[in-house]
Amino acid sequence: MNGATPHIVQYQGSKRNLAPQILRYFPQKFNRLIEPFAGMAAITIAVSKQRRAEQYVLNDLNEPLVNVLRETINNPQKLIEEYAKVWNEQINFEGGSVEHFYKIRKDFNDGNKSAANMLYLLARCVKGSVRYSTNGMFNQSPDKRRMGTNPKNLASNVYMISSFLKGKTEFSSVDYREVTKMAKRGDIVYMDPPYQGVCTTRDSRYFSGICFDDFVECVDDLNSRGIDFVISYDGTCGEKQYGVDLPKELKLKKVMLNAGLSSQSLLLGKKEKTVEALYISPNLSDFTTSTTEEQLLLFAL
User: Is the pLDDT at 237 greater than 90, yes or no?
Assistant: First the structure.
């Protein structure tokens, strides 16, 4: 299927741009794709566009985020209509569109966590970057330079994503370990967890960090059951390395993907290249061709 892969909205940390590199390590056909840390489901959307899997599982602890995915896939027209209503309100809102954003944010934090409200906050907030306070309140500011994705532009992507995934997708908002327990042979588990440095304290981008040891135990369980998986985990930016490697005892193949220039460093007047680590389970590593390795092993390990 030709054409650009659709996305719902800009989302910081999304693997949309890296998806073509990551998917080279996926089989051409498999039963089910499971994403325990779905975010905005960039990998699921990319896989479904290529019709590689029959079924999909999308999970994220951020329940309003999962609701956006659910409505996008199962009720696209309803989501677009409700989003358009929220988005259009800002045009003639007393006090301006920025004040409108704060109104919707307050409504959201007061309990109106509709998919349309969540989608509007994502579309309008700075750099598509979700931020939460220590008590779980959405506290990111609006991008004052733009008004967020126009509903007409959003609609084409949402309908396309729905056409790929409707009737094939399960949704949940539980601990990642519960989701990995459901994996069976023939499935692929793709994990993009909060990166190290947020495993012992809660990072503002996430409802919860994860414990490194717990995550290693989870990966070891997948290995012991013969489940195939791919993990995006840490990397480097310029001279700075984030986190430590997953243990060698897991026998994972590690490759480094060129993620381009860091947007954060560009804001500081620097040009630092971001490199992200990808870990592949032993069974999948056996199917990696030398050609693919030459394409993706951009950096010696």
Answer: no
Q: From CA 7, how far away is CA 160, in angstroms rounded?
A: 9
Question: What pLDDT digit, counting tens, does each position of 183-220 carry?
Answer: 999 999 999 998 664 444 444 444 456 888 999 999 99
What stretch(es) of the chain map to CATH 1.10.1020.10?
72-154
**What is the CATH architecture assignment of 19-61+174-296?**
3-Layer(aba) Sandwich (3.40)
Residues near 230 by beta carbon (within 8 Å), at least 6 away in sequence: 22, 25, 26, 188, 189, 190, 191, 278, 279, 280, 281, 284
Rounded to whole angstroms, the Cα distance separating 273 from 269 reads: 13
Three-state secondary structure string covering 181-201: HCCCECEEEEECCCCCCCCCC
Strand partners, 56: 33, 169
Q: Tell me the pTM.
A: 0.87
Q: Are 78 and 162 in contact (CB under 8 A)?
A: no
pLDDT digits (tens, 9 = 90+) for 74-128: 999 999 999 999 999 999 999 899 999 999 999 999 999 999 999 999 999 987 7
**Architecture (CATH level 2) of domain 72-154:** Orthogonal Bundle (1.10)
Domain with CATH 3.40.50.150 in the chain: 19-61+174-296
Q: Do 55 and 168 contact (CB within 8 A), yes or no?
A: yes
Per DSSP, the residues of 239-266 read: TEEES-PPPGGG--EEEEEEEEE-HHHH
Q: Residue 129 CB: number of other CB atoms within 10 A?
A: 16
